[in-house]
Amino acid sequence: MEPFWKTKSLEEMTPREWESLCDGCGKCCLAKLEDEDTGQIHWTSVACRLFDIGTCRCSDYENRFATVSDCVRLTPQNVRTITWLPATCAYRLLANGEELYWWHPLVSGSGETVHEAGISMKGRVKTSESNLAEPEDYLQYMLEEEP
After folding, report:
1. Cα 55 from chain centroid?
2. Using CA atoms, how far apart are residues 8 and 54, in angstroms rounded to an integer?
3. Using an 8 Å Cβ cutoff, are 140 and 46 in contact?
4. Listed residue (146, 98, 124, 107) closest to 45, CA to CA
5. Residue 63 scores a pLDDT above 90
6. Cβ atoms of residues 105 and 24 within 8 Å
7. Could you tell me how far CA 120 lies from the centroid of its own chain?
8. What's the first-to-final CA gap in the chain, in angstroms?
9. Residue 142 carries which DSSP code?
10. Structural domain boundaries of the chain?
């Protein structure tokens, strides 16, 4: 029997199936800067104040939208248009008709393979947005490329 992500569209998935697509890389929880002139996205090593650096997950997932005003709820519709989703993101991959990578927990059977493969932000976050006072402070944490 084929796994659900190969037989269902994003729109057909149950909430539980949808949530299981998240590989736990933590890249969505990084601050990203957008060039106003070009629209280019610049990644930083600055994490959302709710990001748990030990688990690479949100520390208050159920209440994140009430706590973080710019937290984005991923939907089958917006994952097709959000430009900052990582290239390795399962939502983006499936929306584009691509396969999940071997390290994705649904494929590997382990939530640790995303970290073992070096895909996640575990150990790579330099600071939290709660430690930064001014928008300019983010510039020192810009990354050369998507992590």
Report:
1. 13
2. 32
3. no
4. 124
5. yes
6. yes
7. 9
8. 34
9. B
10. 11-129
The rounded Cα 42 to chain-centroid distance in angstroms is: 14
Q: What are phi and psi of 20, to 5 degrees?
A: -70, -15
Identify whether the C-beta of residue 94 lies closer than 8 Å to the C-beta of residue 37. no
pLDDT of res. 135: 87
> What is the tens place of the pLDDT at every residue in 18-31?
999 999 999 999 99
Kindly report whether the global pTM for this prediction surpasses the value 0.85: yes
Q: What is the average pLDDT score of the chain? A: 95
Mean pLDDT of 114-124: 95
CA 136-142-144 angle, 5° bins: 150
- The pLDDT-based confidence of 39 (bands split at 50, 70, 90) is confident
User: 144 vs 94, 121, 126, 138, CA distance in Å?
Assistant: 27, 15, 14, 13
- Which residues 6+ apart lie within 8 Å of 129 measured at CB? 31, 46, 47, 48, 49
Angstrom distance (rounded) from CA 113 to CA 119: 9
Rg (alpha carbons) of the chain, rounded to whole number: 16
Residue 4, pLDDT score = 98
